[in-house]
Design brief:
alpha/beta; 35% helix; 183 residues; Rossmann fold; single chain; six-stranded mixed β-sheet; 2 domains
Length: 183
């Protein structure tokens, strides 16, 4: 039993030394930053929409509400930067490039055309697509199980399965890409 107590005492000694070292480092860091405090970086979300603001009257407020439920208040601890193409798909590449130039932390896309433009604009900024019926077929993901790259999001897969008796089609459930940390 004395051997076990000796090892436990050594473990406690190491823990106390580690705690003291961490405490010292924290106090040193606080003293160093007390005179020159830096502003905390506010995450910036870019939202790329092929349609116009009127067509997105439900989507954008719902997105803002979801952020608010998670504790993010626009203008306070998060910035939402929305770009509308107003139905002109040829404008999407330039709008995606603008979002990349503003150094957004993530780009949210509202459809396949938006996702394609965002993917061409960046391979490093995470892209979250809110809808795509075939991300593998559109070459946004290698597979649903392992999408790879910088694109993640939702996919509504609807493969057709014939019933032998009626010939009607069934629909499968919605697939979701694995979630990744954004900040």
């Amino acid at each position: 039993m004395s051997t076990g107590n000796r090892q436990q005492a050594r473990g406690n000694s190491k823990t106390i030394k580690l705690f003291g070292l961490v405490l010292y480092a924290m106090l040193f860091a606080l003293c160093a930053t007390a005179s020159a405090q830096q502003a905390q970086k506010v995450p910036r979300i870019g939202f790329l929409v092929a349609s116009n603001a009127a067509a997105s009257t439900a989507r954008i407020p719902a997105f803002r509400d979801g952020l608010r439920e998670l504790g993010y208040v626009e203008g306070k601890n998060i910035i939402l930067d929305i770009r509308y193409a107003d139905g002109k798909l040829d404008r999407l590449p330039a709008l995606a490039a603008e979002l990349v130039a503003t150094n957004v932390d993530v780009i949210v896309t509202a459809g396949p055309a938006d996702t394609r433009a965002a993917r061409k604009a960046t391979r490093s900024i995470p892209i979250v697509m809110t809808f795509d019926n075939d991300p593998v077929g559109n070459a946004f993901a290698a597979s649903l199980a392992h999408p790879g790259g910088n694109i993640t999001g939702l996919s509504t897969q609807a493969p057709r399965t014939e019933r032998k008796t009626t010939g009607a089609f069934e629909r499968s459930n919605t697939e979701t890409f694995p979630r990744r940390g954004l900040w």
